[in-house]
Amino acid sequence: MSIEAQLESACDPDDARRTLLIATSVAAAVPALSTFTALVRTFEPSERAKAAGAPVEVDIADLAPGQMKTVEWRGKPVWILRRTPDMLASLKGVEGQLADPASERNRDEMTPAYARNAHRSIRPEFLVAIGICTHLGCSPTAKFDHGPQPSLPDDWNGGFFCPCHGSTFDLAGRVFKNKPAPENLQIPRHMYAGDTRLVIGKDEQGEA
Ligand code: FES
After folding, report:
1. Residues near ligand 1 with C-beta < 6 Å?
2. Residue of 119, 135, 165, 190 with catalytic role
3. Could you tell me which residues come within 8 angstroms of residue 124 by beta carbon, excluding any fewer than 6 positions away?
4. Which comes out higher in pLDDT, residue 138 or 31?
5. pTM to 2 decimals?
6. Which CATH number is 51-207's, of 2.102.10.10, 3.40.50.2300, 3.40.50.720, 3.10.100.10?
């Protein structure tokens, strides 16, 4: 192309308009793409979560009423207790003896919003709690039988007993008054992936 022709083409207003349109489309696509990338990142586990450990999926189909199973998540024991109607009924009866019946203490860390209720769980039947005492980290033992027994009050309604310094917890992991443990047992972030699949370490907001 001659120099005259190139000069003429460069000044062609149609060419200039086309160039402007393409540039505008690309510029518009960039924020859309970055918004999409940010959205994907939001649903990805954070580096901290990945380093700490993946969520654990548990089959709870074989858990009979009154039974408890323990699984490990991030090196911690997680209890899954399937409560009977009697066990659930006992929760109301002990509220007056508890240090924090509504799970208000340190609640963002200890009790996710969906577990701040009378049964401290998503499904009333299932308690999902970290089995580590909030005093100095011992592992409480299950004491589901009612009535007098060593180290427990005569009107014991079932719950958990920490053998290290005597803290007691009800069947929702709530600590009784005047015990060394300062807080209720922690409820980990969790969700259900179907009727009989429980996922620990993840909820609708993402990974813990
Ligand atoms: S560690 Fe449980 S009462 Fe001290």
Report:
1. 133, 135-138, 162, 164-167, 180-181
2. 165
3. 83, 88
4. 138
5. 0.77
6. 2.102.10.10
